[in-house]
Every structure is written in C-alpha cells, then in structure tokens.
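Appendix B. Chain record.
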Amino acid sequence: MPSPATSLGLDYRVGGEIFARHADQDAVSQQGELSFASQLNPYLSLNVRDAFISTTEPLQKFVRINEATGLRDISQQSRTRTVSNIAAGTVELRLTERAIVDLLFEHSLENVSTPQELNETRYSIGTEVGYLTDIARRSKAYISYLATFFTFGENGTTASNPRSANFQVHTVLVGWRHTFSPTLAGDAALGYAITQSGDPAADNLGSIVGRLNVTQQLRDGQVSFGYNRNFTSGGGVGGAVREDALIATFFWKATPKVTTLFASKYALFDFLGTPVVDNTGARSFLSLRPGLAYQILPLVNLAFYYTYESTDFNRPNPKVSDQKFTLISQLALRESVFLSLMYDYSVRHLQGPAFTSGLQDFARNQVMLLLTYAPTLRF
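Structure tokens predicted for this chain:
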C-alpha cells in the first residue's frame, strides 16, 4: 500500500497517426514511464524507474536532449519504427547518519527498423559510497564504480561482424553533489575510465573522464547546464566512442498561458577501434531545440517547435544538416483523451561527397491527425 514514504507513478500514452495523404505511413505509437520509490525502513530505500517508447515519428524517438546523440543519422530522422526501453534501479543503504552506500543498475535497449544501423543493448552495474557533508541539504562527497556492457546485433544488411563492436567500460569517479541554496544545486566529478573489447584497436584504452552539472530553479521554470566526458556507444554504427558533450536546457512558464523551452547539445565524438558499419569516424554534433506553447482556451493548445541538428564528419565525408518546423494544435476531448492536428516540414542537406549508407538530401511536408490516450496515475 502506498504511504507517505512510498510513491508510485505511471504515465502511459498511445497515439494513432493518420496522414492526409500517404495512408501507408499511418502508425500507432506508444510511450510509457513507470516510477516507484519507497523508504522501506530508516536504513533502506528503493528507487525504480522504467521508460518505454515505440514510435515511427522522429519527434518522439527520445524525450531528453542528451539522447539526441547524432549517432543514428538515419533512424532518428526517418519514419521507421524505433523501440527503446530504459530500466534503472537504485538501492540506498544508510550505514550511519552520514555514510550512505548506493547499489546501481540500469538496462537499456534500442531496436531500429533500419537495415543500415545496428540494434543495441546496454546494461550497467555499480556502486557509490558517499558521505553527507550537509545532512539537511543532502550534500554528499562520493566515490563510485560503474561497469557498463555494450552489445550490438545485426539488423538487415548491416555488417556481418557486429560482435567486434561489443565492448565494456569500467569507470571510477570521485565527486561532490552540493545544494548551494533551495534553488541552486551542482554535481562535479572526476575520474578514470578504461575499455575492454574483442577489437584490439579498442581494447584497454584509458581516459580521464568527468562531469559538471549545475541546475538553477526559477520561479516558474528551470535552467541547467552540464559538461560530460566519458566513453559511450557508437549508436547505429557500433563500437566505442569517446564523447565530450555540453548540454543546456531552459524551461520557463512566462505567463499562465505561455510556456517557452529551449534545449541544446554540442558533442565531439572520437571513434575507437575498427569500423563496423560505414559512417564511422570522428565527428561533431550540434542540436538546438526551441519551442513555444500557448493555451488559447482551457481545452485548446497551440505549440510551435523548431529543431536544428548538424553533424560534421571528418573529410572526405559530408556535413549533414537537418531542420524541422512543427506546428501542433491540440484539443482535449475529455480527461486523458486528446485530438491533435500537426503540420511538419523537414529538410536535410548534405554538403560534400555523398554517403553510400542511406544518407541523402530530402525535403518533405506532412499533415497528421493524432488521437492520443494518456492516462496518468499517481499514488
């Protein structure tokens, strides 16, 4: 039974997309998020969450800006089915009033209906040992260890040796999370990571890694900024990648009727090891996503979103630029049932020699009618 020390949340939505033309593109999408947190006793707590997405719509293939990697150039910009799921859990053991041990677990998968990209499964296990420097503010100095295992699977006509793309990353970090004030918090960590791989070119590679994140709560919004350096997955092309990323997000409810948002990411990718799929090489990635939502009437919303993404490959490969303009009008038919009319214009431009793996220029317009059922449960 839920209690003041236990919370359970479920957000789920299923939507049907109906096109004014090209009925063969009609599709059903699903998105859900489950969260559970419980203070089992004064010394033990549990936190579990799961996020699931199954969609063909590029705008819905990820919900957080740090998931816009620039490493799936084909599937993230085309109407092909993407199924992803992220499940994570944390068990917190409070040994003393200030000493805390966290046991960490995460599992994720991403399957794409695109023959030029690999499917990916990833899971992590680790622990974090911390000491509360400020009990009231929950500020904590910590040391953590995390082992992450990346595996890739063939997908249609992708390379026949995806196993050479599999690898592991072992990461040790020393850091400090501090709440400076009720509205300002930060997290800084520095450490070392090393890879293990069946590919000799990507095996036993070490690097200094770290992160710095700052979050400021506003009266009616939030602004955050972060830097992260680590080993990560090569996404659709597999293999290990060293990533340096800057991420910034902004959310502000300017008036009771107007909401503004902005999310951006800039990343540098250094591919390690032997190429498994074409398009493998050092690159930079930029993503800019401003948006504006206006509540016309209590049951009617109008929203505008713009997306700019650019991937700059090392020569002789081209620079790929994507732009998307989206206008959505939404009517709440009843609680948890929404009818939306969406207009979307997308354009891709390649500068430089053409790829042989499916990337090409395009410009397309689409008009969709969406019926969405989105129940929300909170305990």
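Further analysis of this model is presented in Appendix C.
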